[in-house]
Structures are given as C-alpha cells and as structure tokens.
Specification:
transcription regulation; DNA-binding transcription factor activity; Fe_dep_repressor; cytoplasm; protein dimerization activity; two-stranded antiparallel ribbon
Amino acid sequence: MSDQTARSEEITMPLIDPETQVESFRQTRSNRRTELVEDYVELIADLIDDNGEARQVEIAQRLGVAQPTVAKMLKRLAAEELIVQRPYRGVFLTAAGREIAERSKARHEIVVSFLLALGISPATARIDAEGIEHHVSDETLEAFGRYIRRADRKAQ
C-alpha cells in the first residue's frame, strides 16, 4: 500500500461546532495556568520529602529558571495560601498545597505508567508525562488507569 493510499484511509475528524471549540481552547488556557502551580508544588513536595525543606535556589536550578522567576511564583503561591516561606529555612507546603502536590503526583504516575505500558522508554515516558499530566481530563486519566490494570493482569 502506498503512502498516499494509507493517508487517504486515515480517519478524519469533522470540524467541531464553534462553542465546543471555544470551550476546548478555554480549557487549554486554564490548564496552562494551573500547570505552573502544579509543577511548583509537586517539586516543592519532592524536595521536602527528600531534603526536609525546599530552597528557592534549588527550585530554580531544577526548573531551569532564574531565581527572580521562582521568587515571583513563590509570592503567588503564598498569596494563594499553598506555601509558607520561613526565613532562613526555605519553603513549605500548606495543607492545600500538599493536596495539590499529591493529586498532581498521582496524575503524573498514572501517565508514566500508561506510557510505559505502551512500550515507551522510561526516560521518554518521564519527559512526556510532564506535559501530558496537566492536559488530560479525569475521564481520560481513568481510561489510562483501566488500560494499565488490564495490561498488568495480562502480564501476570
């Protein structure tokens, strides 16, 4: 079969109605706003679990951004009551911040497990999951979980 024939047999999705498309783009923009918050609190939780605290310099280093960028985001997280900054001690999560971090980490682990079940290499699965975890619906995440459980049962 030629490439041309294969392409013509591909499934084409019809253009969706404007209201649905607007809602889709709205959801994507909302996801982008929360993605940063989730990435920060998840990293802060990991650093606290590993080191007992999270320091601004290490957050900047691990996210690959400048310290002033981290300082600005930490100010936002503090205003949203997700973190507490203690002078000479570092950054700590509030109960609300810890809840978001745990939920984000669980989503991340499901996506990584799903990608691994598809045969994606561990390194690529970790990198790709970083973007996917923030942009899939709960319904899709549940489907990933079902797929993982089925794959686990078949492997046993």
